Model the fold of this input.
Amino acid sequence: MEIRDDYTIGDLNASSWPAFEEFFNKYNGVQNSCWCVYYHKGVQPLRVPKKDKAEHNRNLKRRLVEGGKSRSVLVFKSGKVVASCQYGTFEELPRIENAARYASVKLKEGNENRWRITCFFVDTPERHKGLAKLALDGALDRIARNGGGLVEAYPVTKRNTVEVWFGSVGMFVERGFKIVSEFGKSNVLVRKMIESIEHR
Done:
């Protein structure tokens, strides 16, 4: 784990699940009870009753985490999770490829590792303290330590769009990401090559 001031950076895994679960339960699974499972392949059945959605997604998220198929950087304060950033390989987070708007910007086959950063969430009392940036830096560091490769993300462009889900364009541009194209009405697609830590 890394430490910045009163904050500690860690990873979502079976050991940290209880703290992550407590954080997301506080917000009923965040963003329509999603539990950050939306971008995992085939995880949203066509019909799950609204009253059962949060429990279904929580259980699914736990299975993914315990199976090593869901990655997030967690920011802790006093032992509690106060922010998270989900990232993963294209194979782990493939759902966005089903979007019609992705067809025109889809990458051709290549040999490099390919990663996505899809979701951010910061505890309401901890917002505007740079924790999303801290979590993003943690994710990029972990990508570098796992061989690096091409990273893409989908930050928002409008202030009235909730930045806590996808992050702001500025925080990605500050880290050298390039805007590839518009992505819907409120987002852009950004990409950057991250070197493997072994080659730095």
